[in-house]
């Protein structure tokens, strides 16, 4: 069997895996995101149905890629320096980017980890799938004690089971997860799990954490599309409010959400995995849309995430930051209010 045929067959499998099925609406007007089979986005969200040929071209391009991206100089802080910089911030509210959508956040003495993905591969298999081309800012064995995990959805680059299993003192960690994922966290050994529907809140170590709608989807196998919910999160401490978008496309609902739940001092919003646009537009923001989403949510300082770690889209791997910063400037944001961090970089947020 030729290499081209193998790639074509593999691409066809991935295309079939990606298309799946769509859950039906159960007609409940009080919670229109609930369906007979699971969940869906809010009314007004873009439809993610795309022709199978788009998935096929995308899959063949992914399988046919020969070279992994090479991190640009300064993209990753050496881990000893990252650890020293984090230690120097002890006692202060701070934000550390560990790569992709994984942030170490310290608020009011509580240490939060978002979408923990610190292993090499975002895949259900020991081969194939998106592979990390930039190392974590802090490796698993060197993480400080974690108090809270905020998990946005079930995809492998956010819900990374090997990372979760390797975390120390899981019995002492509180996990905040969307509907349908609580049992998985309890099975792994987390002591307290807050399983939230959109607009529900939990008091977690003195922080108020509210699950907010994002525009995305969920699946881990061929048979569980949209069976579990996806979400963003509002995290509120004493005098500081932070928004974590999770994976999301852009749509008309964010202005209403911002009016209801904003403003926020900081917003961590995805800026990568936006190409091919016809495939990604419903579920991932472009850098420009990330700025618009942040402004809709009433965010004062927007922090870019979901880029520079694994190749999920077909855009140039280091294109997103310049587009994001240009869009922020065009929208009237000062450089102090549009952040692109290096992996492993820590910045004070209060």
Write the layout of secondary structure elements.
Blueprint: H1 3-19, H2 52-64, H3 79-88, E1 94-99, E2 102-107, E3 110-114, E4 148-150, H4 161-166, E5 174-178, H5 182-188, E6 192-196, E7 201-204, E8 207-212, E9 232-237, E10 240-244, H6 253-261, E11 264-270, H7 277-280, H8 287-296, E12 299-305, H9 320-330, E13 338-339, E14 346-348
Parallel strand pairs: 3-4, 4-5, 5-6, 10-11, 11-12, 12-13
Antiparallel strand pairs: 1-2, 1-14, 2-3, 7-8, 8-9, 9-10
Helix pairs in contact: 1-2, 8-9
What do these coordinates show?
- Helix content is 25%, strand content 20%.
- The chain has helices at 3-19, 52-64, 79-88, 161-166, 182-188, 253-261, 277-280, 287-296, 320-330; strands at 94-99, 102-107, 110-114, 148-150, 174-178, 192-196, 201-204, 207-212, 232-237, 240-244, 264-270, 299-305, 338-339, 346-348.
- Mean pLDDT is 91; it is low at 1-27.
- It has a seven-stranded mixed β-sheet.
- It folds into two domains: 3-64, no CATH class; 79-348, Ribonuclease Z/Hydroxyacylglutathione hydrolase-like (Metallo-beta-lactamase, Chain A).
- The protein is of the alpha/beta class and 350 residues long.
- It has nine helices and 14 strands.
- The N and C termini lie far apart (59 Å).
